[in-house]
Write a structure and sequence with these properties.
Layout: E1 10-15, E2 20-24, E3 30-31, H1 40-47, H2 57-71, E4 79-83, H3 91-97, E5 101-105, E6 120-126, H4 135-144, E7 146-155, H5 162-165, E8 178-179, H6 182-191, E9 194-200, E10 203-208
Parallel strand pairs: 4-5, 4-6, 6-7
Antiparallel strand pairs: 1-2, 2-3, 3-8, 7-10, 9-10
Length: about 210
């Protein structure tokens, strides 16, 4: 079953030495079956090796590809959430330097579920969606706490075509279990609904056009 749209209509597109990869025929998400997921301890051990820091100008420049287009759309003093902030929160620092307030949430490094009950003007999810074991559940939760007119900014490498995917470096990371394409984000935008803007090949902005009804 597809972990994003829950469709049963999936096909295997490739297998490597360690895992197999399925593609949903409805939303086009490519995903790894749960039996190939790392344990929580092994997953965290891999994240612990990351050396990201707000003192690293190259990392700040990398994140600016999402920061700048979002900043251009925000009102002064907006409130934001950095979801999946990681061991060295940096994007939140960029927004705070620009005068916005930021909350942090990370399953391993900032496990503060109370921040997921607060409404926000914007939410950032950088290099995170590819790690989600339950992407629809987790993304829907974020969409629920995004204020009407708010922006959800997502950065992730977009999946290439099936032939190129078999050799794609991005799928080799064992913590990467979901691979989105432009078509997948377009499908998601119609479900919420959202206005989708693709700023770069790996930067997607989704504006909440109406109050979510549940």
């Amino acid at each position: 079953m597809c972990p994003l749209c829950q469709a049963e209509n999936t096909i295997k597109i490739c297998t490597d030495r360690h895992r197999e990869y399925l593609r949903c025929q409805i939303c086009q998400l490519i995903f790894v079956p749960p039996n190939f997921f790392l344990s929580a301890d092994d997953e965290k051990a891999r994240y612990d090796t990351h050396q990201n820091s707000p003192d690293d100008p190259k990392y700040r420049a990398f994140l600016s590809r999402l920061f700048i287009p979002m900043q251009n759309r925000l009102s002064p003093g907006s409130s934001g959430l950095d979801f999946g902030s990681g061991p060295g929160p940096t994007l939140s620092v960029l927004f705070e330097e620009a005068g916005h307030s930021m909350a942090l949430y990370d399953h391993f490094y900032a496990p503060h579920p109370a921040v997921l009950d607060t409404p926000y003007d914007f939410i950032t999810v950088t290099e995170v969606v590819e790690h989600l074991h339950h992407p629809r559940e987790e993304l829907d939760r974020l969409w629920t706490i995004l204020k009407p007119g708010g922006i959800l900014g997502i950065m992730t490498q977009l999946a290439p075509n099936q032939e190129a995917f078999a050799e794609w470096y991005y799928k080799r990371d064992p913590t990467h279990v979901c691979f989105f394409s432009r078509t997948t984000f377009e499908w998601l935008a119609t479900q919420w609904p959202a206005a989708l803007t693709c700023e770069e090949n790996d930067v997607m902005l989704l504006e909440k056009t109406t109050e979510q009804v549940r």
